[in-house]
Amino acid sequence: MVKICIVDTTFARVDMARHAIDVLLNLMPGARIVRRTVPGIKDIPVEIKRLMKKEDCDAGMVFGWVGRTLNDKISYGVYSLAMQLVQLELEKHIIDVTVHEDEAESEEELYRIAVDRARKHAENLYLLLYRPDVLTERAGTGRRQGYPDAGPITW
Amino acid sequence: MVKICIVDTTFARVDMARHAIDVLLNLMPGARIVRRTVPGIKDIPVEIKRLMKKEDCDAGMVFGWVGRTLNDKISYGVYSLAMQLVQLELEKHIIDVTVHEDEAESEEELYRIAVDRARKHAENLYLLLYRPDVLTERAGTGRRQGYPDAGPITW
Amino acid sequence: MVKICIVDTTFARVDMARHAIDVLLNLMPGARIVRRTVPGIKDIPVEIKRLMKKEDCDAGMVFGWVGRTLNDKISYGVYSLAMQLVQLELEKHIIDVTVHEDEAESEEELYRIAVDRARKHAENLYLLLYRPDVLTERAGTGRRQGYPDAGPITW
Amino acid sequence: MVKICIVDTTFARVDMARHAIDVLLNLMPGARIVRRTVPGIKDIPVEIKRLMKKEDCDAGMVFGWVGRTLNDKISYGVYSLAMQLVQLELEKHIIDVTVHEDEAESEEELYRIAVDRARKHAENLYLLLYRPDVLTERAGTGRRQGYPDAGPITW
Amino acid sequence: MVKICIVDTTFARVDMARHAIDVLLNLMPGARIVRRTVPGIKDIPVEIKRLMKKEDCDAGMVFGWVGRTLNDKISYGVYSLAMQLVQLELEKHIIDVTVHEDEAESEEELYRIAVDRARKHAENLYLLLYRPDVLTERAGTGRRQGYPDAGPITW
Predict the structure, then answer these.
(1) CB of D73 within 8 Å of any CB in chain E?
(2) Superfamily of B3-137 according to CATH
(3) Where are the domains of chain C?
(4) What phi, psi does D54 have (nearest 5°)?
(5) D37 vs E contacts (CB less than 8 Å)
(6) Residues 6+ apart with CB under 8 A from B14
(7) C-contacting residues of E 51-70, CB under 8 Å?
(8) How far is B40 from chain A (nearest CA, A)?
(9) Which of A59, C78, D137, E92 has the most CB atoms at less than 10 Å from its CB?
(10) ipTM of this complex prediction, to 2 decimal places
(11) pTM attached to this predicted model
């Protein structure tokens, strides 16, 4: 039985984890999901590290939401690096689903990006765990999450 | 009995820790608070690390204040990353309440942001420690500290 | 027998690993190649670390692809630093072949850069492993991957 | 007897350490000062780490000087983060007195900033070691080093 | 007998190591130099770490060369931080001689900067190892490598 740890935030404006859990349980009906929520992205790394260790999860997903200011960008860089440190120490994949508010002009578009990114990355986590061969078939093919695929460049 | 370590600075222009302690003791009347003050944000990480270890605190709060220049922004990024390292090593939450001087034009507004952020994050720390279920209910609902809540996006 | 670990992404728009493997096997016919593919660059460091340890590879190659936005640039910096941490911990070379979409205006040019960089860095890995003397002969001579050599400056 | 390790640079244009030592010995007549000088800020972290360990200093002071270019800013960020790593590993305060050349237009003003910052931070180090109560009294009062105090914001 | 480890790149457009070795052997005729060359700056940290450990060098020098684009700047920051990590772990000085292509408009000027910086930093390494007293005499005197000395500011 696979076990997935999930941490999201009250700062985010879309409940991305709900969509990801939906996909995860559809692809891995026997999976066990453990979920925690923290205030903002700077609280995620320590929470997911503790949770992964305490619950002995096989992999994780985290859901970030980042504002438009320079301060937000700096915080994103810090958060993102901390997530690398957690993954390198635990030696387990923790897929980061982050939406940046400057990715879209309208709330509708942000919502669409958030849901699409959460669902596609949930599928990616499944592939990492059970079907690495499918990922290798897709190597260099310009897959995107939150946007339409860019596709491969061929000449 | 829960024990909370707090570190703030003489650089900050608002005594945010006082407001946070007020909320913490209101929500957790039996809590013990240990507080230290350092000159600026670059002195916080080592102080809170030492204090958390020496006092065996369950969680921490730190209060930063950041100027408007590029040098200040760089220092904030460095400080913020060091705070991630401390949390990851101790495996305990240390909520960062930082006010950036470019968040507002007037001193009055900066003051309001600082107090609101300190008080709301004190409540967040209580929720992390005692009511994680409430945080998960609020997942993806666009909560803000220092500003009005952005609210969830729904379509 | 030398063993090379390779990790690339489904995000990339060119299958650079294929070109690198072609060069590696041409220069080192007895080499064993182990390859994995992950969604994006933020998933590479933990994957190559796990793979290098599990497969006991002598060296590695990773293939990144980075978009044009500020968010992409931040992610690249984070990814790049994590790759340094992996190399420093394992004490083995892992050559990073990253293409940035702002390196060229046309897809044709991006494709040309990607293939040239992958092939030349595959040769570099061979030189690091078997012919360090050739690299020292080339010290300070302005070699480039993805572009024509800049050449040495002499006066 | 308290022991203070000091590292400064030949790059800096003001002998800030001399002023800091003057204040330190005035406030702590029995203190022992150990001082080393390195070429530039990138050489400081390893030197102060070695010195603090070898001399078993109780605390440290480092004196940086940073130019106006983007390259200088990047180097400052790197230096500053390395200083955090040293402090977190040694669990001792090392106050960073850094002057940025873009802080002032004239050499006279830069000189004044450098001396004032060095002297005030030397006093801060004394307070950290012997009078933490005084620092807490000053919490949130807008103290500055190199500039006049900003003062507290009150409403 | 002192032993110095050196790593440079094939990316650089000037053979700076040659000039540095010339100075090192002039100042320390009995020194033993061990030199390796890697493709670019991102390959330097792991190479110098391995070399310093394998050869048990007393100190090191690395020679970087950085292009003009934002991608180059990010890579420089990452490289520079990794070099801090190596020094802090080994607790030995490794002087970084890096030339940035945006430091000069003409190739002639870049060449002059590169050679001057390499030679002066080779002297600096000698002073760090054998004459720390001379460095302290020069504290705060505005020494530069690659440019004329800025000199001390005095009022």
Answers:
(1) no
(2) Lumazine/riboflavin synthase (3.40.50.960)
(3) 3-137
(4) -65, -40
(5) 132, 135-136, 138-139
(6) B65, B99, B110, B111, B114, B115, D140, D152, D153
(7) 53, 63, 70
(8) 18
(9) C78
(10) 0.97
(11) 0.98
